Amino acid sequence: MVRVLGVLDAAAVRRWAVTCVDALEASREEIDRINVYPVADGDTGTNLLHTMRAALEALVRADVADAGGAVAALARGALAGARGNSGVILSQVLRGLAEEWAGAETAGGEGIRRALIRADALATAAVANPAPGTILTVLHAAAAAVRECDGDDLAEVVVTLSKAAADALAETPRQLSALAKAGVVDAGGRGLVLLLDALAEVVTGDRVERPVGPQRLARLAEDLHAEREGGSAEFEYEVMYLLDSSDDRRTSTLRAELAALGDCVSVVSDGTPDGAGLWTVHVHCNDVGAAMEAGVEAGRPHRITVVRFADQVEAAPKRFVRERAVVAIVDGEGIAELFRGEGAVVVTVPPAQPLDTADLLAAVSGSRAAHVVLLPNSTHFNVVVDEACAQATEAGQDVVAVPTASAVQGLAALAVHDPARRAGDDVVAMAEAAAATRRGELLIAQREALTWVGRCQPGDVLGMVDGEVVLIEPASAVTAAACRLADRMLAAGGELVTAVLGAGAPDGVAEALAEHLRHTRPEVELAAYPGGQPDAVLLLGVE
Length: 543
Fold this sequence. Notes:
It is a single chain. The chain is of the alpha/beta class. Helices cover about 50% and strands about 20% of the residues. The chain contains 20 helices and 16 strands. The strands form 4 sheets. It has a 6-stranded mixed beta sheet, with helices on both faces. It has a 4-stranded antiparallel beta sheet with strand order 2-3-1-4, with helices on both faces. The chain is elongated, with a radius of gyration of 26 Å.
């Protein structure tokens, strides 16, 4: 016999999040196909899935034992990983639960009632001039239903709200001309119904199966002219970014400045104490630079996405506006400029911080390329890279990671990249170039340790080739160590040495290395660049 839950605890919240991800994975393509509003770009299902995955990942990482802490973790993860309008709204729905359940071990029917009413208010406030017939309409109907629901029985409340949401979804084609013209229900609303049905399934043990609703999609790309939710046609770009800011006054000023630049403005946070200072920002405008400058004045913008509406409509129902792209992971601003100069999309990893799957996925998806080559440039990111590749591939992009263990191998791979070549042949050529590049680095020892060439002390200079320590020099001998390391690497031959100088490299290292090679290896060409990487004093590549 299936046990009907009387309350939701942390374990039940986690089961709900897992069920949501499973449901969105199963229905992603279906939801993408019916996505015609506000822009017919076919990505609402993908955006909801990525946002909910980010929420679940945050919950899995969090150490929480109560329902309030669990939904707070979901809200923080959703805000950080929000994709598109639907993702922003989903983050605010979860924020409503987090605010109402703060500190609560469990939540029952009354808790669901309060949380959904709060979520409705937050999500509505996140969108300027919301139009009828969207995900907000479906959410409002669910909130109204639980407000009028008799009793506080958890099962009764969740079944009531899921049915009300489904009924409201069926009405959306009568409320939006774009939906009626395409013969579909609202894609975001369909996603929300899936999430509420998942909650009912966790509570009651009964799986809810609902049809998508009426749809006729054959002529979608040919004659559907997309509208914009609450927005004017005079604005050409959609700008989204996360913002680190602990000053509410500055974010209020940002909201006003963005409103002067365009419309569809939202500046929202997850509203929880641990997440204070993290905001997601959205605006439709013409001056992208001004929108970014306003964010810089308010705090630190990051994970920036800019979409040109005309590209979305022209490409409908395809999501991609170009065939190929290269995404590179780097850890220094100088290295980032090198890769950007070669046309790569760059993901910068801040010092002493892990690479986040959501950041990497945002860059891969934001490239808007059908085929993406990913350059990890480190062995430390393998798990995140594999997960991002799997999720992006499942979402419809062809993503392949070339095994580059250092930025010098990534630069070698990028040097032979040819967008005119067949995608498979190009990946092979890049992988071969990376494999043919020996990688070396100079590091400063942080503690005493036993290496293959002896014991090192804190402050010693360690020379490494392909991940193994091959020499140890005193702290004062960085330049000598660089020359010795180059000699060691060139002993097996080589024609080109690439040197990337770290943030801690002393003055004159590049010049001394060039002079040394001029005398000992005149046939070898040296290319030296400022990299700014925080860990390695010097990166060397030999081709």
